[in-house]
């Protein structure tokens, strides 16, 4: 079997790439190791001016014109005339984006695990039947997340990794909250993100400064103090790759977490994945273009990574930085949309 472009991973980045390629008549094939599309550990927050402008409004479960930022010394509210962030269900988003790609002419195969990549050939195995199949390709796109096999194929390791832990519990809350408290989260943060009739309560931190077990312990203690006893609830966790080292490697490309384009500061990766997926498609269609979108995305990613390094120096500096950011937001010196990475 031969395809023009083989995309590994049916997350937002891979599906965005597939849709755009298919719209230009290139008939990409997307392979996905999971049986279903869309499910992932995720707080589900997206900026109103970013991703929400690209999907139907009814995919937004709740929208928030007010953001609450809480530190040990401050509680501030950032308010805009229109919503700043909305929450979405990742399964619904995946279904919508996969249908877009299929309608445009892409093919998607689920339940297939990559076993080997050699030259311009990939061998995969079906998770249930153990049937193996080889595919040759002109272009290869790695959209297979933080543990990307395509990334390893091009020789890149991943050392700058974040950890996201979330509990999705029943509840109908109205306030979206971000908690900066290095006692519980190191140089990461805790969140309370209301969805339709549930709420995501979780935490994110760079793994180098806050190991998973310690982050989970801090999250449970913090949540308990806020009146959310999570000890009997089911936690879900995910590694987040922000170790960006490039996205173009000859005829092989990396997008989203596979490229390390998630934000090291916030852990957000949905919008960077979609942007990079679209830009990879544009580059495959026209190899001579210069991607200003990718240049801007990489610039912001590097700013976030620099902030992660600075806040990792010591706990006192991290605490001071958190209070300084909150004060800057309160005074309007720092804009909220400059901190988030198109969440």
What's the end-to-end separation, in Å?
38 Å
- Helix and strand content put the structural class at alpha/beta
Output the radius of gyration.
20 Å
CATH C-level class:
Alpha Beta
CATH fold-level assignment? FAD/NAD(P)-binding domain
The percent range for helix content is 25-40%
Label the overall shape.
Answer: globular
Helix count? 9
Tell me what portion of residues adopts beta-strand conformation: 25-35%
List the uncertain runs. none
Counting DSSP E segments of at least 2 residues, the number of strands comes to: 18
> Average pLDDT across residues?
90
Which architecture name does CATH use?
A: 3-Layer(bba) Sandwich
Can you tell me the number of structural domains? 1
Describe this structure in words.
The protein has 343 residues and is of the alpha/beta class. It has one domain: FAD/NAD(P)-binding domain. The protein has 9 helices and 18 strands. Strands 1, 2, 8, 9, 10, 11, 17 and 18 form an 8-stranded mixed β-sheet that branches. A 7-stranded mixed β-sheet has the order 6-5-13-14-15-12-16, sandwiched between helices. Helix 1 packs parallel to helix 6. The mean pLDDT is 90.
Key terms for this structure?
343 residues, alpha/beta, FAD/NAD(P)-binding domain, eight-stranded mixed β-sheet, seven-stranded mixed β-sheet, 9 helices, 18 strands
């Amino acid at each position: 079997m031969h395809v023009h472009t083989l995309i590994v991973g049916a997350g937002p980045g891979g599906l965005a790439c597939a849709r755009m390629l298919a719209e230009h008549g290139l008939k990409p094939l997307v392979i996905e190791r999971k049986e279903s599309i869309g499910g992932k550990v995720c707080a589900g927050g997206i900026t109103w001016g970013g991703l929400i402008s690209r999907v139907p409004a009814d995919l937004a479960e709740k929208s928030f014109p007010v953001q609450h930022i809480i530190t040990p010394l401050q509680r501030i509210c950032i308010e805009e005339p229109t919503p700043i962030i909305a929450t979405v269900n990742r399964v619904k988003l995946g279904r919508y984006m996969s249908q877009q790609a299929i309608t445009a002419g892409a093919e998607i195969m689920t339940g297939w695990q990559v076993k080997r990549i050699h030259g311009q050939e990939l061998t995969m195995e079906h998770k249930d039947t153990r049937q193996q199949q080889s595919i040759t390709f002109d272009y290869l796109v790695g959209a297979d997340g933080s543990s990307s096999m395509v990334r390893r194929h091009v020789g890149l390791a991943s050392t700058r990794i974040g950890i996201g832990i979330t509990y999705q519990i029943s509840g109908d809350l109205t306030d979206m909250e971000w908690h900066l408290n290095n006692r519980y989260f190191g140089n990461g943060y805790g969140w309370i993100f209301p969805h339709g009739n549930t709420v995501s309560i979780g935490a994110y931190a760079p793994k180098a400064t806050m190991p998973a077990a310690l982050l989970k312990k801090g999250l449970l203690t913090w949540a308990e103090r806020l009146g959310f006893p999570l000890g009997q609830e089911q936690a879900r966790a995910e590694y987040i790759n922000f170790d960006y080292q490039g996205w173009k490697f000859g005829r092989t490309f990396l997008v989203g977490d596979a490229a390390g384009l998630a934000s090291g500061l916030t852990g957000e990766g949905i919008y960077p994945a979609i942007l990079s997926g679209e830009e990879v498609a544009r580059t495959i269609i026209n190899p001579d273009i210069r991607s200003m979108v990718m240049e801007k995305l990489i610039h912001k990613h590097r700013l976030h990574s620099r902030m992660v390094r600075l806040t990792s120096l010591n706990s006192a500096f991290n605490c001071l930085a958190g209070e300084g950011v909150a004060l800057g937001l309160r005074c309007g010196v720092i804009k909220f949309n400059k901190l988030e990475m198109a969440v």
